[in-house]
Amino acid sequence: MPHPSQSNKGRKRRAKFTDEIQEDLKPQKAIKLLNQEVDLDLPGDGQFYCIECARYFADGDTMGKHKKSKPHKQQLRRLKEVPYSITEARAAGGMGVAPAIKNLTPGEVTAMNKAAKSDVKMAEEDSTK
Question: What is its main location (predicted)?
Fold first, then answer.
């Protein structure tokens, strides 16, 4: 879903969703998007395209300014996130195994285990009453 700060007021069409842009960033599609034929209907004849933001620009100077802008850098940060997958959606709905938790320190894992054990003990005490 486009980020709320990404305004569509100045655009003719809606912005692409993050997962669509991540598909466009794959090498085969990226080459096609960067080496498009001249299309007189697009801004800059379709020659100045920012893949990360899915926008066409009138000239190289405008595109260069855009690449230095805050919205472009924010979009790059959003694209670094791992895309939401079907397995995650199913696990959240209780239809599968949750994906493994990555990058936790041993202390964090221990704290999570203690919290889970205390929750189980509280549930057992409530059920015996």
Answer: cytoplasm
